[in-house]
Amino acid sequence: MEGKAEVVLQVEGLKKYFDKKNLRGRVLKRVRAVDGIDFEVLRGESFGLVGESGCGKSTTAMLLSGLYPLTEGKIAFNGMDISSLKDPQARERRKKIQMVFQDPAASIDPRMKIRTTLAEPYRIQKKPVTEEMLDTLLKTVSLDETYKDRYPHELSGGQKQRVGIARALAMDPQVIILDEPTSALDVNVQAQIINLLDRIKREKGLSYVLITHDLSVVRTVCERVAVMYLGKIMEQGPVDRVFANPVHPYTQALFSNIPVLDEEKPERIILQGDVPSPRDIPSGCRFHPRCPRATARCASEEPQIVQVGPEHTVSCLLAQEERHE
Known about the structure:
Radius of gyration: 21 Å
Number of helices: 10
């Protein structure tokens, strides 16, 4: 790649807190689901966001798509701030950022025929829609026009997900947020959906933000990846570099459990305990209670982001120490 591609989506200091308040409005508990993350998505690329359940990656997807308001931070689309959901111009720009949800059965109204589901984005935006436009959407996801008159219960899981993808394409987006788009599907159908998404991305020049726990999918389809843990990004960089040389102990543990047919596969790292609650985040490095390499310093000092390679960054005190040796 000559030079750096254009940034289509930029996230700075993104935070989302959920507060439980008493009747007087006093905050009793605060859940820091996303706690200050930064990343950017380039035009035409697939950016992966990975981590264990509860790390905040799905909340990030909801923030990017405008389904949650931000607590703090900034989201810029094509260089323009779209952080405020109350800004009419921001809402207009957000049409170009669409989302495909994890469960295709739950994301499609079972009472609607497929034609109504596909026409709904046009109705909401008060735009005219024709039968030819609906046929084109279905053709794009490899379904014929006869599916327009079917109900969701008449479709398989893979076909429902194709309808979900077609609906996301209705507003001619530039960015699509994919929240675990294959996790509810059979293995053979997963491969079909991944190939479909790849074809659509190339044909339309789209950018994807892929939210997933499946590292094998990220390795196959993404150019860059960010690893999240308890609301923070632990490591970020090009997929080939991060997978070849994971630096953060959390990333190393995750990647050691990827199934591969290789006798030289590194020894599996089994993390002890569960992800702590975002209501009670540990002091210092939030990963230190589960980190096999943690020191006393890790429990008291929060790590800064350091660069460990070309476009490869990590948030780890051990990496900071090694960098200054």
